[in-house]
Amino acid sequence: MAAYYKKPMNKKRHPFGMDVRRRKICRFCENKIDFIDYKDERLLRRFVNDRGKIIGRRITGNCAKHQRELTRAIKRARQLGLVPYTAEVFD
């Protein structure tokens, strides 16, 4: 039995056969957020994966300016213990 594959809706076909994805928009630019607060733990956790690593710009869609600010805020929050350095491992 053949598996049914449905093409994702956010992709378009390029004339030469390459897939073209829609560009992600920086959520901070979109909402006109000037300052990323290191004390806003809920916002910062969105940009840290389950292992405790900071998610890169290509995946989050942030612009370079806001990604730098976000990284700085996450590192400050880690210093204060608001955001963990690594994932919690339960045996």
Give a brief description:
This protein is mainly α and 91 residues long.
Can you give a write-up of this model?
With 91 residues, the protein is mainly alpha-helical. The protein has a domain at 25-80: 30s Ribosomal Protein S18 (Irregular), CATH 4.10.640.10. Helices cover 33% and strands 7% of the residues. The protein has helices spanning 27-30, 41-45, 57-60, 64-80, and strands at residues 11-13, 19-21. Strands 1-2 form a two-stranded antiparallel ribbon. β1 (11-13) and β2 form a beta hairpin. The longest helix has 17 residues, at 64-80. The model has no long low-confidence stretch (mean pLDDT 84).
Strand content: 5-15%
Question: How is the largest sheet built, in terms of strand order?
Answer: 1-2
Low-confidence parts lasting 5 or more residues at pLDDT below 50? none
Radius of gyration: 18 Å
The class by helix and strand makeup works out as mainly alpha
Query: What is the CATH T-level topology of the domain at 25-80?
Result: 30s Ribosomal Protein S18
From the coordinates shown, what is the CATH architecture of the domain at 25-80? Irregular
The CATH superfamily of the domain at 25-80 appears as Ribosomal protein S18
